[in-house]
Design a protein that fits this description.
The structure is a single chain. With about 110 residues, this protein is of the alpha+beta class. The two termini are about 15 Å apart. The chain has helices at about 1-20, 70-80, and strands at about 30-35, 40-45, 55, 55-60, 85-90, 95-100.
């Protein structure tokens, strides 16, 4: 279930960014691989403009900020549950999100 939550939030964010691109120019790439007990997720999408960041990370660009911006925070919480790594960057007009999860022993975690 946690993997569905991670992928759902990440792909939703990527799709939203692609929708801001000029017609026909939005692109998204999903790579999943597993080595031993480690799951590697990489989602890349084209971006129209650089994401807005503050000291806490990425900032939602939606008008109703109080009701949005929880997707990446949820991914970060689940990354912690699986003693994983989350990294994101922009390069050459692409946003790249990488998540590594240790599937062996999830850390005790109460939401």
């Amino acid at each position: 279930m946690d993997l569905c939550i991670i992928l759902g939030n990440a792909l939703d964010n990527a799709l939203e960014a692609c929708e801001k691109m000029p017609c026909g120019q939005g692109r998204m790439v999903l790579n999943l691989s597993k080595t031993g007990e480690m799951l590697f997720i990489e989602i890349k999408n084209t971006i129209y403009e650089e994401p807005v960041k503050n000291s806490e990370g990425l900032v939602t660009t939606k008008k109703d900020k109080a009701s949005h911006g929880f997707g990446l925070k949820t991914i970060q919480q689940l990354k912690d549950k699986y003693d994983g790594i989350l990294d994101y960057k922009t390069e050459g007009g692409w946003f790249v999100l990488r998540i590594n999860l240790n599937l062996k022993d999830p850390v005790n975690y109460d939401r």
